[in-house]
Amino acid sequence: MLPFAPWAVRSLIAVLLSTAFAWGAPPSAPAATSPVRAAVARSLTLDPSQGPPGSRVGVHGHGFFRCTTDGLPAEIDITGNGGDSLGVVTADADGEFATDVTVPSGATAGGYGVTALCRANSKVRATADFQVVPAPVPTALALDPAEGAVGASVAVTGSGFDGCTADEGRAGTVALTWDGSPLPGVTPAEVTVDGGSFTARFAVPSDADASDHTVTATCVGHEQVSAGQRFTVTDAPEPQPEVTLDPPALAPGGTVAVSGSGFDCPEVALTWEGKQWTTVAPAADGTFHTAFDVAPDTAEAAYTVRAACTDDTGVGAEAAFTVTGGAPVPPTPTPTPPTPTPPAPPTPTPTPVPTDGPVPVGLVVGSSLLGAALLALAGSAFLSHRHRHRGPRWVDDHLGSRLRPAPAVTEVAEPSETGPPTRSVRLEPHPDPGDQTLEEDP
Q1: What are phi and psi of 373, to 5 degrees?
Q2: Labelling 169: which of 109, 287, 318, 380 has CA 20 to 30 A away?
Q3: 384 DSSP assignment
Q4: pTM for this structure?
């Protein structure tokens, strides 16, 4: 062992004993006291927080432990907008309470405040807001008519389907069923909801029996939005009388076939414009077949053919018949055109007789020129004879005169080489009248 080890041990023990006396005895534990309540914020919660007027709402309060009177819980009033009293409640030792209240049926859409107020301490209060929404319109289905026979056409009107929507806010569609089975023949095939309503039409199934059936409209994808209505299938109606004409229009003189059905009577009378022309006996199934001829003199017009039971004239049917033309008109003979007179054949031009040899060109040309000269000379002589002037010798031989007062005599004459004179001049002298003066009256 090292020579200083015993000394170090004794020094450490002395230090520890000194520390223990300096600190003294440990303090005793404090005496127990009453617990202190932690402060809790007052609040009011509503469940649900929105709904239509008349909704039942749960009200839960917290932090109402200071609402006391002489150490006892005081009453808390639950009120609505305008001071409507909804109920009275007291809080427990923890300052909590829970109750149910009813939103007044006359509450308008929008915020509706619900307040919890301590009667003993008006500072102890809390308020929560309830959103009033319009009351939903109940789904409904109407059928028109509400009863009918097999095959009858029925109009369907749905309302209150506001909750029937498709993805991305698009309008939803509804499916129609007949006693829970798909209803075929619906028009339109895809019934679309518009503004919470829709219209469609269907035919009563052919296999439906005469009893009550249920027509249901269900929103596709939102099966909880649906409505149903009862439809009563009645017995099949009796067949109604019917008359058909074949053909329905014809010219005078033709034959028309008449057929009838639905005539449950022993005898049927047929009339033309109210005048009966025959009767027929229907078969056991109420049908008959006959025919009539359109008179040749029937005018072009529309006529009515009626068939009615003779024992009950109210049971009958009518058909329209049209006469397409008047009485036949004999064809007008087409006049035969006169036979044209052939034109007279042209007079043949004599063909010159050819000579033994060719005719000299000079002879032909010379003869032509000679003939033309002779014709020109003859014309000139003729014109000169008719238009030449008379000379003095001709005047001395043919004209004469005498002095007055000789009696009138014809002295001028144009002799003719073949007969009597052709022209003459009569000269008749008169006394000299002297000078003549003309004066104008003033």
Answers
A1: -65, -45
A2: 109
A3: H
A4: 0.36
Place of tokens 């006892």: 72
Tokens describing residue 110: 């929008």
By CB atoms closer than 10 A (0-12, 13-18, 19+), residue 427 is middle
Identify the helix (H) or strand (E) that includes residue 161: none
Torsion of CA 117, 119, 120, 124, to 10 degrees: 0
Give the Cα separation of 214 and 119 in Å (integer): 58
Q: Are 140 and 226 in contact (CB under 8 A)?
A: no
The sign of the dihedral angle between the CA atoms of 276, 281, 283, 284 is positive
List the structure tokens of 308. Answer: 């009615």
Residue 382 has φ and ψ, to the nearest 5°, of -60, -45
CA-CA distance, 419 to 421, in Å (whole number)?
Answer: 7
Q: Which residues contact 164 (CB under 8 A, 6 or more apart)?
A: 172, 173, 174, 193, 196, 219, 220, 222, 225
**Three-state DSSP class for residue 51:** strand
Query: What is the phi/psi pair of residue 276, to 5°?
Result: -75, 135
Backbone angles phi, psi at 116, to 5 degrees: -110, 120
Tens-digit pLDDT profile for residues 168-227: 778 899 999 999 999 988 998 889 999 899 999 999 998 999 999 999 999 998 888 999
Dist CA 200 CA 378 (whole Å): 119
Tokens of residue 206, six digits? 């052919």
The residues of the chain scoring below 50 in pLDDT are: 1, 4, 9, 15, 19-36, 327-329, 331, 353, 355, 361, 363-365, 386-387
Q: What is the dihedral of CA 46, 48, 52, 56, to 10 degrees?
A: -70
Question: In whole angstroms, what separates CA 204 from the centre of its chain?
Answer: 29
Rounded to whole angstroms, what are the CA distances from 140 to 197, 220, 261, 350? Answer: 9, 16, 42, 118
Phi, psi at residue 95, to the nearest 5°?
A: 80, 20
Q: Please report, for residues 20, 149, 267, the alpha-carbon distance to residue 207 in angstroms, rounded to integers and kept in the order given.
A: 110, 11, 35
Closest CA to 247 of 238, 237, 258: 258
Distance CA 103, CA 83 (A): 13
Q: Which helix (H) or strand (E) holds 23?
A: helix 5-23
Looking only at Cα atoms, what is the longest distance across the chain? 237
Q: For 90-116, b where at least 16 C-beta lie within 10 A, e where not — what string?
A: bbeeebebebebebbeebeeeebebbb
Residues 53 and 102: their CA atoms lie apart, in Å, by: 9
Judged by DSSP in three states, 362 sits in helix
